[in-house]
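Build the 3D complex.
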Amino acid sequence: MAVETMTIEVAQASAIGFKAIGAGLAVGLAGMGTGLAQLGIGGAAVGATAENKEMFGLALLFTVIPETVVIFGLVIALLLLF
Amino acid sequence: MSSVNTTGPAPYIYSSTRMRVRKSKLIQHDEYMRMLNMSLPEIIRSIEETEYKAEIDELASSFSGIDLIEVGLSWNLAKEFQNVLGIMPGVIKKFTASYQQHWDIYNVLTILRGKTQGVRAGKIKEVLIPAGSLDRVFLDRLLAEDSPERIVEGLSSWSLYPVLEREFPAAMEKGTFGDLENELFKEYYHYVLKQTNSGVAGGKPFRDYLKLEIDLLNIKTVIRLFKGKAHVDVRNLMVEGGGISVDELVRLAASESMDEILEGIKKRYPEGPIGELMEEADKTMPLHEMENALTRVMLDQMDRISKRYPFSICPTLVYLKRKRYEVANLRAIARGKESGLPGEKIAEFLVV
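Done.
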């Protein structure tokens, strides 16, 4: 009986742990994806803005577009946790 | 710059974007056509509204007319190329610098030619374009030397010095620097071709482009020799490293007629822009039109490569080439107008 209780408790704790790992992976991997995308866009945005100051607004807009990816990750993480 | 991490694609993306923006600011075909209908002062005013404003404003008190345009364009070109070298990170900078060395050859030969013909140092300085590894201060030091021999000695730290040292006595004896120039350019192309293997992104497509550039240079020489009916040792004039071998070029140069030369080139390049040009060209085509058409082919080809490899060394080099021809075009328009040539005649000399 004690062994069975322990198993259920362990399983429940593991489930919470795995959820936390999943949430962490969702945000972390999405963040890396965003970073990779912003590497290129950011480089180009800085280059374009250096040549033409009027490009700043548009360049900033393009740079933040990949942020949506990390927000998707965050949403998945929140759904997992709550 | 060496302390900055310049690996990965970011430096290429950054530099390519900057060069693309600059390329988009270059003078367009329509603007050239408008300039052809303007007088010299109007052209100066028109140029002043573009990227040349700073130079024209600065020099307006010292020069006027055609001199103002000439000196302003040279200053702008040198400033622009030095600026490009300044913003290039890491390996791209090294590669761009080695490609820009042809300006060193131009400057050194201009100084040597000027000095041997007794031209004033100030006058020589006006036409120098310090866009390569030899900067303005170094060139000023060379200009201050009295004799050509001293100038050559002063260049002992230059990467092409061994060739200069080897060929200089013969050039002085003959009184012409043509062969020396040829040898310097041969060594330059050899060096740049070697640099394309240095691990720079886009090195391989650029090597292919360089081969095309060498081919076109050799083709131009062959056509010039034929049209000028010059009987010289062709082998010595050809630059090695191109797609067409030197033996083939020597055979082409020995052709009986222009058609035979065009046919020979067409056989080597049956398709693409060169093949098409050879199809269109005929033996009556004037030399300058043929040369301009070949230059246009070269620029188009470079554009294509840079679009295929957008984040590589290629967009930078395309911009440098286009900028160079923009200055050449503006100079042609200004000189043509100064000489009173009609607009249609000047347009034939433009590379647009």
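The domain at 203-308 of chain B is CATH 1.20.1690 (V-type ATP synthase subunit C fold).
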